[in-house]
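Quick one - inputs below.
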Amino acid sequence: MVREQIMEQGKRAREAARALATVSTTEKNEALKAMAAALEARAGEIISANRLDMEAGEAKGLSRALLDRLLLTPERVAEMAGGLRELAALPDPVGEVVRMWTRPNGLQIGQLRVPLGVVGIIYEARPNVTVDAAGLCLKTGNAVLLRGGSEAIHSNQAISAVISEAAVVAGMPGGAIQLVQTTDREAVNVMLRMNEYLDVLIPRGGSGLIRTVVENASVPVIETGVGNCHVYVDQGADLEMAERIIINAKTQRPGVCNAMETLLVHSQEAVELLPGLGKALSAKGVELRGCPRTREILPEIKEATEEDWMTEYLDLILAIKVVDNLTEALDHIDTYGTRHSEAIVTRDYNRARTFLQSVDAAAVYVNASTRFTDGFQYGFGAEIGISTQKLHARGPMGLEALTTIKYIVYGDGQIRQ
Amino acid sequence: MVREQIMEQGKRAREAARALATVSTTEKNEALKAMAAALEARAGEIISANRLDMEAGEAKGLSRALLDRLLLTPERVAEMAGGLRELAALPDPVGEVVRMWTRPNGLQIGQLRVPLGVVGIIYEARPNVTVDAAGLCLKTGNAVLLRGGSEAIHSNQAISAVISEAAVVAGMPGGAIQLVQTTDREAVNVMLRMNEYLDVLIPRGGSGLIRTVVENASVPVIETGVGNCHVYVDQGADLEMAERIIINAKTQRPGVCNAMETLLVHSQEAVELLPGLGKALSAKGVELRGCPRTREILPEIKEATEEDWMTEYLDLILAIKVVDNLTEALDHIDTYGTRHSEAIVTRDYNRARTFLQSVDAAAVYVNASTRFTDGFQYGFGAEIGISTQKLHARGPMGLEALTTIKYIVYGDGQIRQ
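Output:
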């Protein structure tokens, strides 16, 4: 029953994708603006629906943090609408001929950028993802099948009804934006193996969700998320700069994937750097955990265990390890890093180069905070997520990550010899 | 036991990949040439090992065609060596900075092309894939874990021993080229879920193998292969050109994925085209199967069933359907095509454009044979396979498909606001 419903939605999405592939940029942008206007005009409806989710969440004893993520206010609805208008203003990647060349036999071969087709998004609490993901997919000519968390089901139903109706009125095909209506977990299992109708699955949420999707999907997945990021302070580094970068990477927004989790310090800088840094971090509420050599300098802090090197805290906790050289730092990053964002603070040309070349991660920094790994910070104007895999897209994903290419070939009767 | 062996190989491959990522182009090319020389010098060994596989294959009653694929001769070994030398002569995609830009805060952000890391290849009978895949991976700085078919195990063991030894002598890290030594099927199951050590899996072989890998792998997969390709002859097309293209697409090499399987003909051209074409195809040994309207013109041929529209014959069989317009042709292709290669023969500007834009396939042709979908024909100088998925790579895959990018970011102390 659930299976049939979802398959039916997949089929409609596939049909919508076929129609969307040839919709013009202007039409798509008009639809995005109409969706924004509808969100504002019908904010009351959305907030009433959200109240049901909030009440259920409170009754269920959801944490403050989760309830705050779930909450919709007139301001937050206006922000969602603003996001759609910003998307409308961005260039459309679809339709670009990336390159075109002529073969000796006269065949002209081009790579045309086209939508992926149907995108499946499986996400957790935040209802703003519903608008965000629908907007990104529509902008790039993709149909989307959205599967939100059960905590936000009423909010998501209200939002998706508002925006999908507005899109249809603006001339988009029905089925371009669809929400899975049931909270039955079976729906996810069906989506994971719906290769016929889904071209890609993007999980957005905690590591448990992402693991489930990666391990069980036969549909291609873009893995996002986990970031166990390091900053390495090299011998001879500018220690003021190091402190500024460390405090930013750890405390500017500790709950996100590009925040620093472990600090690596060259042994010759540890004595000078750590006491002041330790105070500054403690003043910001950061709990420190150190290796034995760190604790010789900061005896008051807890000992870091193997577990600490492996943990993405997503919290005001920092592990610190003293190392004797760059190689030791690189080995630590290779062993415990999750190939997300890694930084070195250095004045040395060769070690900067070695770090950039050797570290296997989506983003590698010299003398800058890991917090910059972000589609907006990179200048993409939008972000679908941060890919931690190597296929298709790596690092911050802008609109292009929701497209593929097809070869278009112009001939005048060529046959193969 | 099998599991531990394979995991150990994966671990060695991961270590080798880390070392390979910073090996220079010159060193990689020298290693490829050394591997080529070693193949030639030790051809006798390889051919002796192949004889064991041939004898076992004959005893097992393998078909002529399979035995021919399995067979190694001095000429075939020389061809494999030649392939490695050609690879050595190609440009190295690794190390290119694809683009680089500066943000308003002064951060300089670049996309550096890097190896994927560790590539797993699961393939069937042909032992030449062992050399081919190892060469492509080494050229692009990837470690490779090869899993060939049990029919070719002795050949593959001999070949991989020769080339991996030569690579190590030439300075490549041990573990860069490894063959799975057991023919136990459990080895494949382990590889499919070895996310820790494998960055990508590429299955090369029949549709059964590819389906198994796609359905069961948690490691990201690049799907290659199945091609149910069409040629559509439009109203007003140059029928001589159409006949030339059809004969080429069907008969030049019928057993490959870019060969045509179904012909779609506009009803206004069918009467003129089909009788002569039917004779020409029959003369080439092609069996025709037609829709009822085709059989009004060619009453002697078999009726095509729903099954025919769905079948990738990979053989001298052609299904023919008469359609009344482009829309009907597009619908047929959308319903039965496998999104591989599709062609229109036309003189009409607007219908050529519509076909190019509407058909969802890796390669779409106007007035040329579908047989051109090939890395060498496209000018890539090499081919890993033809991707029929949309993520990462689509259509013929050259060396670039075995690479990814990482962001390298140069700062001077930037922190996020």
